[in-house]
Design goal:
By secondary structure, the chain is an alpha+beta fold. Helices cover about 35% and strands about 30% of the residues. The longest helix is centred in the first third of the chain and has 54 residues, at about 20-70. The N and C termini lie far apart (about 100 Å).
Length: about 230
């Protein structure tokens, strides 16, 4: 009886064998690997979602600014409120400060920079005379070509990554590729009116590069506020 109790006690106090330890370590390593892959996938998904959310917010703000510039287009006597030369779109617009009325020139172009190819916006300082308009208009053209080292205090903002962009005008009930607008005869009854035949709408087509944010083709239509019904 004593020998039987001693045998049971020895069996119960026996430790793990080497094989059992190796199996346990292998199982723990496998579980750790599976857990790490799960955490890594969650981290990647979180990063991608954040990048996409940031890209969407940036694009929304950019398109809001685009629409605001077009909505605020205005005309000074014998000036051009809008001009597209195939490279840069220049606009004459009202200033946003209603307490101090002014006019400024803005330009949109696709240009390369330290952060890659991006759609960029240039804005002049506010002005009040036709001579200042001409200076700002020329500076906008220079900026689109070589960055315009002498920008006269103007601002240059890099916006969204873009591979290429296209513009269309709505004229004669159809969308046509944008081109330089032809001049119109002066109207004695409206000497401050536009010197060009303004389009009824502007269609913007952006080709967004593939990446972690947004990609594909985006189309945005703008219709002149004076036009009675939307164009599509």
């Amino acid at each position: 009886m004593h020998d039987a109790r001693q045998a049971r006690s020895g069996a119960s106090s026996r430790g793990f064998t080497l094989i059992e330890l190796l199996v346990a370590i292998a199982v723990m390593a496998l579980l750790s690997l599976v857990s790490w892959r799960g955490l890594d996938s969650m981290s990647r998904a979180t990063t991608q979602n954040k990048q996409r959310a940031d890209a969407v917010l940036t694009l929304q703000a950019t398109l809001a600014q685009w629409g605001s510039d077009l909505d605020a287009m205005t005309t000074l006597a014998q000036t051009r409120p809008i001009d597209w030369d195939g490279r840069v779109l220049r606009l004459t617009r009202r200033g946003s400060d209603t307490t101090s009325p002014s006019v400024l020139v803005v330009a949109w172009a696709l240009r390369a920079g330290p952060d890659g190819m991006r759609w960029r916006r240039w804005q002049s300082l506010p002005f009040t005379t036709r001579g200042e308009w001409q200076q700002a208009w020329n500076l906008a053209a220079a900026w689109s070509q070589d960055g315009g080292t002498q920008t006269g205090g103007a601002s240059d903002t890099a916006l969204v990554p873009v591979d290429r962009w296209q513009l269309f005008y709505f004229r004669d009930n159809s969308w046509v590729p944008a081109s330089q607008l032809s001049s119109v005869a002066p109207n004695p009854n409206n000497p401050a009116g536009p010197v060009i035949a303004m389009p009824d709408g502007v269609r913007l087509v952006l080709s967004l590069p593939p990446g972690d944010g947004l990609s594909g083709t985006l189309t945005r239509d703008w219709v002149r506020p004076t036009v009675g019904s939307p164009k599509s």
